[in-house]
Amino acid sequence: MTTRKKPVDVVLVGFGWTGAIMAMEMTEAGLNVVALERGDMQDTATAAIYPRVIDELAYSIRGKLFQDLSKETVTFRHRPDDVAVPYRQQGAILLGNGVGGAGFHWNGLTWRPLPSDLKLRSHYTERYGARFIPVDMTIADFPVAYADLEPFFTQFENVAGVSGKAGNIGGRIMAGGNRFEGPRSSEYPLPPLKNVYGDTVFAQAAEDSGYQPFSIPAANASQPYTNPYGVRMGPCNFCGFCEGYGCYMYAKASPQSTILPVLIMRPNFELRTRAHVTRVNLDASRRQATGVTYVDAQGTQVEQPARIVILTAFQLHNVRLLLLSGIGTPYDPATGHGVVGKNFAYQMLSSVNVALPASTEINPFIGSGAGGKSIDDFNGDNFDHGPVGFLGGSGIVHHRTGGRPIGQSAVPKGVPAWGSEWKRSVQQTYHRTLTIGTQGSVMSYRDAYLSLDPTYRDSFGQPLLRITFDWHDNDLKMCDFVTRKAEAIAQATKPTSYQTNPKKPGTRFDTRIYQSTHTTGGAIMGTTPANSVVNRYLQSWDVHNLFVTGASAFPQNFGYNPTGLVGALSYWAAKAIRSEYLRDPRPMVDA
Amino acid sequence: MSRSKLERCLKTTLAFSLLWCAVTKADTLNGSIDKGRYLASAGDCVACHTAVRGKPFAGGLPLETPIGTIYSTNITPDPDTGIGAYTYEDFVKAVQGGVAKDGHALYPAMPYVSYARVTDDDMRSLYDYFTRGVPPVRQTNRKDDVAWPLNVRWPLHLWRLLFVRAPLKTRPTSTQANDKQLARGAYLVEGLGHCGACHTPRAITMQEKALSFSDGSSFLSGGALLGGWQAPSLQGDISDGLGNWSQQEVAQFLLTGRTARTDAFGSMEEVIYNSTQYLTADDASAIAQYLKAIPRTPSPGYAVPQTSARTSFDTLGNLRINSNGARVYVDNCMACHRSNGQGYSVAFPALAGNAALNGDTTEPIIRLVLAGSMSRGTRLTPASFYMPSFGWRLSNADVADVVNFIRQKPADTSFEATEETVAKIRSRLDTQTPK
Q: Of A117, A348, B40, B183, which residue is least crowded by CB atoms under 10 Å?
């Protein structure tokens, strides 16, 4: 028995960052909006209560804010002819849940991709020739340029109160910023976070090595701030409990701390929590969405009719919902046909652990989510790829998030993980260890994709999403190259010792250790229905009143955290919906 | 013109006139209702006359008084259980005279003494709002929980005659009313705002000691402890009045509950949330101007010394923890209120130099430490800020120590918080029904 709700103008599936942005935009346009969130309400006063929130065991180790994998998870396999198995413990990816999604507890690193990152295939073709791009690499251009998105990057950064220093304003290179970045129209809304001592050490070593380090753009307010919606934020106090925790200082940008106080008051907005969407419903022609079906907290099946359906869940869930609803042709790696699920990509990381002289007092517990220093000389195509024979690059960063006892008091390799020797080692190294990290691009390939698992199902009986993914030579080669550059900087810190953690060629993707939740693709944006799932306005080619936001739109991933672009694309798509689609509801781009 | 044509002409003109009158009257009535709605919010009628999760103005909210628990009444226009049968004269008699339609005297918990100041014009609008703008709710008034003989009403008539002087509207305003804005401020503060109901001390016979500044120097000089909160002095004293508040800060506080240095809590947070956030910018400024014009009168009781306001906090900035109170502060309060006690502008209030910490009672501060506080968003400042509770992790001794620490440890120990005080307040909090 299905309960049928009164029709609304817009139904949003998932209520994290893109859901909150879309809700603000659509309610501002006067539409009736219902947001459906499978998880619970959570905000500072309920889920980030000081001092109880600074509990590493509960949040970082046992994942209190993360998705319950026993109810729903994903399956993983390396190659298309492997058998996928369920991901049963928190490891490589940490999926969010509840109001705000992972936006409630992320770190806050808020980058813009390089202009060339958005035109990847044509850029490499132009500079290095078409043959430079391996045949099995399915990278593509975004169908929107950096210049188109610039005002929307700015809009998102102003809403989130990003702290940083611009490196390029209107073409003018500014000292102290990232000289490689695309041109910005203005300075960041807040000045950069203060440097912790490790930042100073890294920056000095980078400068000594001939680079120009700059502050990482951080959605952790460096001072009290009121955003364009009139919402006040507090400043980051460097508590060292950021990623995985709600922020009790109201400093970390989240939908709760930047948007919800205003949105919740709008009479044309309704939020329903514990509403798990199982399917997007289509009419008989299958070219028009009629709404969605969800299961409420009592287990009742509910139908919510709507004029417009927007998938605003996390990247993986958006793709899964398209597959479960039979929207678009699923991608088949054998034939290369189909689009839903194709071009899945991730993030490539490595690090160098540095042990500084014994007298150093790093004070590692002084940490922020996104404060730190970076160099971009080996990111994107900021260097000549001709001699090195790979595509892509990485940022090299020092990013101190804290010195938490369980996860952030690492000892050198070879030291036991417990006991008196371990204790002695922690005492000797905790105060003087610094990590230099690299975060880089992962290209898309024919054999890395998303599909529905044939065997495993979630607690609602629906097939789990299957991730087929492994590291490819190109990206491992890139990582090796950049790690050696990071190593050189490590040497320039004049350490007593250092330990490099590279990804050697042949490394297989290991789901057991946490790496990153920057999964991308599967519902990519493109120029035609044959090569993509959504058009440049994130509108489905197949179902014109269906929009799909998030990093599922990325044709491949670049050497930065994805959220800045995710936010910008949401505002960009919202503007198009408001100015074009609402006047004349039809496909906005000719197929 | 033919006769029938003339008739038609006249009829049409009459019809139009009547229609025009009706429309204008409706417009006038709607305008009056809207004005009444604004005045009712300035008067904060909703705060007492609406029960928790109850229908607006239907009454039923318990009010703790020195004589027992009384329950607010239904002032929706329901004819049987509300004020639907009230004429305008009945309404005036009740709201400004303190006498209900059936002749019984109202408890002075209803601030009719202040509302007597309201002009006839405004009373008309309030009447229109309450009889035509508020949805009627059928809800019988709850019997008060007052023991005999205090529940006998007729002595209240005596009280009225003894202590309520002539309605203020016939008396001169308390400041030179040359300045229109100042006069408006006086009108709001002394009238609908009824600020004195909390902020003016009362005699043992429960009347406010002064209804305006010309009435006496105790006007707005600070109220008694009520429900665990104490309304501070609004006079110009630096240590515990508005002496070092700018006029702009006062207006900002009324509209948002926050300034760069402090944050509303307790009963005043509710007043801002229910009432003063809806003031126009002009009215908020007028109130601020009037309050700032009240001269300073040194008040008795403890005042945190301004000159050494930072002393306790200074040492923390240098990581010197010299007392248990300092240690408790570092482990619980410092994250938000900072080592120098300055807080963070608008987000978290300053403690160093904050006059809210002054006064001869420590109960409000102890309550905040034990139970925390929510500073709700207003229409101009939508973000809410939350102070968590610490009662669950601090002993009574630790609470007393940290309260004394942030109050700069008064030399006169009678102003100190003690373990026993904290224990008493903690047990009272545990037994209070949650909001």
A: B183
